[in-house]
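> tool_call: predict_assembly(chains=two)
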Amino acid sequence: MSVDLQTVKRVARLARIAVSEEDAERMTGELNAILGFVEQLNEVDVSGVEPMTSVTPMEMKKRQDVVTDGSKAADIVANAPATEENFFLVPKVVE
Amino acid sequence: MSDLTRLTISQARAKLRGKEITATEITEAYLSAIDRANPALNAYVAVTGDRARDMAKASDARLVKGEGGALEGIPLGIKDLFGTEGVHTQACSHVLDGFKPRYESTVTANLWADGAVMLGKLNMDEFAMGSSNETSYYGPVINPWRRSRLDTVVMPTTHQGDGGFVTAGGTKTQRTLDNAQLVPGGSSGGSATAVSAFLCAGATATDTGGSIRQPAAFTGTVGIKPTYGRCSRWGIVAFASSLDQAGPIARDVRDAAILLRSMASVDPKDTTSVDRPVPDYEAAIGKPIKGMKVGIPKEYRVDGMPEEIEALWQKGIAWLRDAGAEIVDISLPHTKYALPAYYIVAPAEASSNLARYDGVRYGLRVPGKDIVEMYEKTRAAGFGREVKRRIMIGTYVLSAGYYDAYYLQAQKVRNLIKRDFENVFAAGVDVILTPATPSAAFGIADEDMAADPVKMYLNDIFTVTVNMAGLPGIAVPAGLDPKGLPLGLQLIGRPFEEETLFQTAAVIEQAAGTFQPEKWW
């Protein structure tokens, strides 16, 4: 499988990365080189093989469903580019 | 006073405990070494001198009372991927501009609890994506090692000294360093360079496809990627969560064992952290390997592999055999599919993990006419080329209609790779010996690799299988190539049998010796 310029622009939109016409053209070549490289996986017989879901076989750790952390709103917004009274500020989303 | 930066961690530990030196003295020695060397090597992106001095002072107070921890007063460098409270943590990306976390990663918190001193944050490939440390927003790290050539000089009179030696015919052989700058490997290039060039006693690093072991091999240092789940990932900037694992880079096997013992822990904050006590890895060093079964996988003999890599591998086999190990040929049939499967799984996980860099909660924000344009412009300006490339690949392979063909197929192949290893371990193999990298360090701005991203990816051909299977792997220096550059061997072990790796790596180190670059910086 390979990608064309339109697909690259669509994927960039999905990934929320602005790309210029020039970027998109360059990326088309690079992505196709990588997709060409991974193509060889199709020759592997995977019939009856489960996909890996856990690297180490282990029980999912669970804990009591209680509050263990919190009351640190100031810490959470401390690194934000724009805040007001412990809220993140963003451009208007809803008219 | 001799140069304190030349002491290994175990040597410094003995001198600190014996009150022959102080934590303040050794910390100052490193800080001034960094001052002098960093303009040339670019290993550190932030030096935390004041904090280092405060921590050293506190260590000295504890040492005087005989209350020192396992790493009391040992100055370390920390890869920029680890969250360090109030200190530069940017994964060497522009998108995290100005980020200073309000928390400390579990691994670094463990190190400070054991008394270690933080010298600063180390350069790396952006978001740990790269094999040459050239994708860093802060510029490439330079390898302290340079190529050299052997010249035979005819001497008019017999003469000894200046690094050369006299031969019977009145000629002298001397090594001349080449000026070409080489990469230290990546993504933990800053860690490897800092350890190799005596700019820290040891360093933290992380490994997603080879990012500890490949730079260790390129700089003549020891690097271990422990079993997935051994070190907590909490507070480490995530790249590919099912592959990422922290580990140390150190000057010798013993130092790596000392560091790993402090870094590893059981952590309730990471659900993949494995509930197993951390053993005393150092105790494994010096134990005989007589009777140990060492597997040699035929699939690691790849086309176009340089002669010196094959020769190094044979030397490693001979050393282990001489030490009493039983050498057996093994087959890991799905080896060649590990790298292509990795380049689906890792970008897919990365595209999801890096979705959080949106200009809202931390780091860079580039304004736009609406919120979507703000996201798009922020991410376009904040991420470098390699990171964008991987986010794009990941987004594509996870997009509607392609998920089964790519991601699911890769995760099935991943299980086959893991099964290959399980089969050989079940057959009684204790440890697997391979080369660490397909070549020695290459030049900065290598044109072939810049033109084709896949060429750069091939650097990880011997290391990536280990991440795919979640196993522990160690790179240990084993010799120099004809141009005088270090080369490493890799040992792969069973899950959570890091002790076997230290035990076996120590045998290789004993036979090969340790390697230091000639100082030019």
